[in-house]
Amino acid sequence: MTQTLEQQKSNTSGNxxxxxxxxxxLNGLSFCISNSEKQIIALEQDNFGINLSPEQVLDKIKYIFxxxxxFKNDFEKIExxxxxxxxxxxPKALFDKDSLKDYxxxxxxxxxxxxxxxxxLDQHDIIVVYIPYTNIxxxxxxxxxxxxxxxxxxxxxxxxxxxEKNTEATKVFAHMNSKSFDLVITSKGKLLxxxxxPYETEEDFLYxxxxxxxxxRLNPEEFELIFLGTVSETSNCYEIAYKYIRxxxxxxxxxxxxxxxxxAPIHEHEHYLLLSHF
Length: 278
Description:
By secondary structure, this protein is of the alpha/beta class.
């Protein structure tokens, strides 16, 4: 279930047709702006180089809103995607809305005042339980009065399972960011694993991939490793994976995205989360 915040006041952007989608993590921001024809008219990414605090990230967002001309548009719809490791995937049959904290407390430190949200993947009977950044939620609430938000893993799992629903093969998807990566493993169209890992070197990346594969008894000579996100053939993580895993490739989005000129063209695996929910 996509989370929604609404305020009992008219939204000044109600007569426009622009949609702003912004992907938030502690090490970077990405955003795109689309028009009513779902054409991408702005697409930008800001990698911080280090992990910031949620308060520092909010300062970055405020600065962009104040100084980037793309944000001077009126927006009919605001979508926020939270990308962090503060989440857990729960089978729908085992889900209890009154036990949200219990699903997280064994993997991460949950503070008493943490707000916990959840997204429902109805077609796959999966619930993603997670902690959004409350200060950033409050900013969008106070600024726009109405917006939606969801966790990045919700989009990633939903998109990949839809793509693999008729596939028998086992596939390992690595969605790359500058300081971490999301690992999703599917087999016969079903989810086997979803987790996020920090990494500093390509050896760190390879260790986590091979460890997950070993736990699931997957043979690196047989499964396919598919890269998504911020990665290329010259990336160190790609090069080391190519040495130790037989089948390595780049993924693609499920739908065709219309990016208007003069925006630079991008590869199908880039900005995967930000553009896959269109």
